[in-house]
Amino acid sequence: MAPARLAGHGSRLIAVRAMVSVGVYGEGGRGPGGPPTFETPSIPPQFSLPGAKLPEKYVDFEQQNARFPLADRVHLACKPLADWRGLRKALWGISFCSSLLWCYGGLYEINLDRRKLKTPGGKLFTVPNEALAIAVATEWDAQRDTLKFYTMHLSTLCNTALDNPTQRNKDQMITAALKFLETDTVCYRVDEPNALVELQKNEWDPVLHWMEKRYDVTIGSSSSILGPEIPNATKDTFRQHLTSYNFWSLTGLEYVITQLKSVVLSMGMIDRHLTVEQAVLLSRLEEEYQIGFWGNVEWAHDYDMYELRARTAAGALFVHLASESSTVKRKLMQD
Amino acid sequence: MAALSSPLRVCRGILKELRAIQGPDYKRSLAYNYIMEQFRKNKVTGERYCRAQHESNHDSHTYLCLLASTRTHMALHELYHSKGEHSTKSAAAMVGLRLPTQPGGKGWEK
Known about the structure:
Number of helices of chain B: 4
Order of helices and strands of chain B: HHHH
Helix content of chain B: 55-70%
Radius of gyration of chain B: 26 Å
Pfam families (chain A): ATP12
Shape of chain A: globular
Distance between the termini of chain A: 42 Å
Oligomer: heterodimer
CATH superfamily of the largest domain in chain A: ATP12 ATPase
Subcellular location (chain A): Mitochondrion
InterPro entries (chain A): ATP12_ATP_synth-F1-assembly, ATP12_ATP_synth-F1-assembly_N, ATP12_ortho_dom_sf
Protein name (chain A): ATP synthase mitochondrial F1 complex assembly factor 2
Structural class of chain B: mainly alpha
GO cellular component, one term (chain A): mitochondrion
């Protein structure tokens, strides 16, 4: 009987899914209070010929996997993954079944069929949060014939946070984020055309005021080439606020700031004042104005907008999931 | 800023995206179970303005935006940026011409 929660989903590699054995990371047997481990029998080689009949103990797999003819399935299960489905699919771009593995330290791993996912740096891919692990597994599931890493934004973020290829620590990331404040999009205004000036005033000023009120700081806006003068007190307040995020959240936050080119909009989105669509719209305000004037080019404007939305949404989700912890408190029924 | 649309719409949107990703048996996936569990858990609250509810509503919007925009981005990429150039033969065929052939091959060709 396949474990409902842990052994994945979908019927693409049914036989191999049935053979995913859930183990406990780093331990030989079952740790106290860990999830149940299921012994799955490995199919001995004499059943690997097509037309062979499986003995009784494999019968319940048969019922779950009634869609596939038995012989093919057994044959497939014993062939190495590389030449299954033929080499016309690129890389090892076969459809795989991604599943989660809860390991003893409370971290989650991702299994693709029987292999554990690793980061590009070679480390084991572990996330502290179940929701994040499920989202990454869904990203892997969305891949079809080829692996398109440029669409797997959450996986990329997790890899960056785990590997830390540029060897940065928290202080460096906070300093970089604050440097962005000096060249924030929302603070740079134009002088002409008038319609754009009005648009910037109407759309960006509310966000700026909200930000100033929420953090009790002053951030001006200016139309000079040097940009606004940010007082040191503002920077200290933000520095203090950003220090409260952990390393993973800061990775995500820096990513969002780089995408939106604005600290104000990123913080507005992280604090749930703006939705992703609104933040992206405000970040691309001048482009939207020009699109309204000259027309929309789908293969450039829409393409960029959706890519920006996807990246920003991934970054925001990453920050939220990396910094949250949820507990359930039940209300007692009063008699 | 503008109020978020209702959780029901977001839930249906997310399920639609999951169905597009996973195929007809999306209900057996991990993501489906988790999403439904989250939506059910956060439904009932005694507060008038429940901050946690607003937060999880915002998170669900974010996730829906992520799934939908990734899919649209990929579709636009497939549509506009994936095909590469026409070969000389097909470019000629577009105007009804064929490439010249020289029996015996050109001198420098195999």
